[in-house]
Amino acid sequence: MAKPHSSNPSIAFYKKWLLMILALFSVSTLIVLVLRATSDSCNDRRYDKYHYISKDSLSPSQIPTASNAVSPLNFMKSKLVFLVSHELSLSGGPLLLMELAFLLRGVGAEVVWITHQKPMEPNEVIYNLEHKMLDRGVQVLSSKGQKAIDTALKADLVILNTAVAGKWLDAVLKDNVPRVLPKVLWWIHEMRGHYFKLEYVKHLPYVAGAMIDSHTTAEYWKNRTKERLGIKMPETYVVHLGNSKELMEVAENSVAKRVLREHVREFLGVRNEDLLFAIINSVSRGKGQDLFLRSFHESLQLIKEKKLQVPPMHAVIVGSDMSSQTKFETELRSFVVEKRIQDRVHFINKTLTVSPYLASIDVLVQNSQARGECFGRITIEAMAFQLPVLGTAAGGTMEIVLNETTGLLHPVGKEGVLPLARNIVKLATHVERRLTMGKKGYEKVKERFLEHHMSERIALVLKDMLKKGNDS
């Protein structure tokens, strides 16, 4: 029986083992990335109105290979880049901006970071993330004061991360806003309607460009801003994300994966042969953990009714916050107790390190509701670990997961509970199907969702932004 828990396995343990593994099994073979032109949902002709930055946009000299390992962002050397994040947390937006900061620092850019909204009381997550940036040479400033204004004015490029970051413009820059807008790239990740407020995005039509993670989100923003706010989107670039080199090193190291899998499963109190279905997202209603647990319970009932022979199944929720448990999470835990599946459901705290959990589970569930995920970085991370994905048929997930090939899709909302339950049963009862989908997902990651692919796509956008800034 699984033991109760609410904390992360020792990060020190992971670091110790991974350092040992990487020392013993240093990368001795360079993998040549073969990029094939494929036509799928990512290249749908409906999206010609946007700049879709794909591998087909690149000249042969730009395509990454083992012998052409120079960063496509090298032209950013000595450029001053000013990054504005509305918050600093373990959520997708801030972590993506941090990743870009490190890529830019890696090519010699001067990078300055500000966080617009910070709590008054000390916050351990913010402290750790800021020091991680400082250790990598990123300057961290207060979002207010003359120094922030002066840096924004002299920067070669200003990147606003998320719609809410737009509040910083009027709050701090004030009369200087018109001088900064021509060099602003607005990187938007949000899909929910409550972000469409004029106080956030009134300056959006006047910035140099917008960068959005999926075609679905770009289309949504174009229509919503016009219909609801009466404003026009600036030149918009669709840039799919990619997996970090660090994650890929673990995903492609069988020894590392085995060590992590054994340790996490031992921590959870589950056996190697047990089946683990996991959601790895911050716990919130929009991410659909409640509907996933209902589906998981339904799947157990279906297996019992049909007398199917499957290994013991478990649901893993990675993204809890035990320091301030929300009403929603309390509801989740109450449901688990009510249905008497405490030995089958495991809650894990938020973490910056997802690799241990991806190494330990068998299937990722991407159950984001309403309009779905803008992109869903965890989806391509799971595919790198050769995991099939059970995802909602909404948002960016449909641009990543190929139904019946790399995973299975189900409707959003209550209508998706039973279909997801059936899909859980399908993958639980068909080992070969699970493994084949995982391999197909990994192949797709290698084709288009690596860090170098993302760097190439972003580089093309940044070149346009610098040109526009110089021309203004």
TrEMBL record:
InterPro entries: Glyco_trans_1, Glyco_trans_4_5. Residues 264-443 form the Glycosyl transferase family domain. GO terms for molecular function: glycosyltransferase activity. The keyword Transferase applies. Keywords: Glycosyltransferase, Transferase. CDD domains: GT4_PimA-like. PANTHER family: GLYCOSYLTRANSFERASE. This is Glycosyl transferase family 1 domain-containing protein.
